[in-house]
């Protein structure tokens, strides 16, 4: 993923994660990858991933279970 570092990065990351969910890379009900894993993969700070995940949660694309992690919501 090529990031435009002259613009805020977290919305770009959120767009990429949305694309992955829509493409079926993360299926409904499946555990979403950990923040640290995504941060390493995308070469961004964990806080950037946290902001992107929070945006996806607000959109209803993800939900979080305390102590278990984030999961892909049903469409």
Written description of the protein model:
This protein is mainly α and 75 residues long. It has a domain at 32-75: Winged helix-like DNA-binding domain superfamily/Winged helix DNA-binding domain (Arc Repressor Mutant, subunit A), CATH 1.10.10. It has helices at 9-22, 35-42, 46-58; strands at residues 62-65, 69-72. A two-stranded antiparallel ribbon has the order 1-2. α1 packs across α3 (46-58) and α2 packs across α3 (46-58). The longest helix has 14 residues, at 9-22. It is globular. It starts with 8 loop residues before the first helix and ends with a strand. This is GntR family transcriptional regulator. Keywords: DNA-binding, Transcription, Transcription regulation. It holds the Pfam family GntR. Residues 7-75 form the HTH gntR-type domain. It comes from Streptomyces camelliae.
Structural class: mainly alpha
* The CATH superfamily title of the domain at 32-75: Winged helix-like DNA-binding domain superfamily/Winged helix DNA-binding domain
Number of helices: 3
CATH class value of the domain at 32-75: Mainly Alpha
> What is the CATH T-level topology of the domain at 32-75?
Arc Repressor Mutant, subunit A
What percentage of amino acids are in beta strands? 5-15%
Largest sheet entry: 2 strands, antiparallel
Give the oligomer, counting copies of the same chain as homo and different chains as hetero.
single chain
Mean pLDDT: 96
CATH architecture of the domain at 32-75: Orthogonal Bundle
| Gross geometry | globular
Alpha-carbon distance between the two ends? 25 Å
Task: Give the ordered list of helices and strands.
Answer: HHHEE
In total, the number of strands is 2
What fraction, in percent, of the residue positions are helical?
40-55%
Low-pLDDT runs of 5+ residues are: none
Using only C-alpha atoms, the radius of gyration works out to 12 Å
Pfam family, one: GntR
Domain HTH gntR-type: 7-75
Keywords: DNA-binding, Transcription, Transcription regulation
Protein name: GntR family transcriptional regulator
